Amino acid sequence: MTTFAKKHLAMCKIWQQQLRDISHPEKIKILSSFFKTGKGEYGEGDKFLGITVPDNRKVSAAHAFDSLDDILVMLCHEIHEFRLAALLALVHRYKKAKSREEQTAIVDFYLDNAHRCNNWDLVDLSAPYILGAHLLNHLSPTVLDSLASSDNLWRQRIAIVATLTLIRNNRFDDTLRLAELYLTHTHPLMHKATGWMLREVGKKHLPTLLNFLDRWAHIMPRTTLRYAIERLTPEKRQYYMAFSKKCN
Predict the structure, then answer these.
(1) CA–CA gap between residue 64 and residue 86 (Å, rounded)
(2) pTM, entire model
(3) What per-residue confidence (pLDDT) applies to 38?
């Protein structure tokens, strides 16, 4: 083993041990059930240590500027919280980057490994703050279409969830375009993500959400619609649910 390889392995072992030291084994069973790790479920085979997100974030921020090779080792690991640690480190690294070139390198790395964000929390805690942030100022939204047209569920979810940052900056077109594309999606995780983003649009500009609902409520997956209308008045919720399509 080369000196470089030994150093690389040692750095990852230090990071991993720091995470093991803050784990709560009593939480493993709950997390395994919550993230659907059973046979045939979307998180099948995922393994947990029982680490809270705030604790993970504190440890991983200190590793944000470790080599991308180290971060990739963490991102490829079978343990869920190690993969999350890699993503939280990338989020911190992007936030602290001092140049557009640094940010672009982080985004390219993220996109190259997007399939490794293989559970909904891994997507939701990274996509808006890496890809979404870059979309705001530097990146063409066509990358969202590439992700959305992928056969990979996690890339598809990254596309819609990344638009949260755009929504918060009063840019709704990309969210609405993807929401329309996902009207016929069959996976519950995509129904929830799409409905969540539509609800966020409504929080920023209610007429935009209502216009979308008036056009598409009659064919929207029921879960998508329920998430989207959660903050509407009871009368409005009842009105739109009357048009819902039961497809999940």
Answers:
(1) 8
(2) 0.92
(3) 79
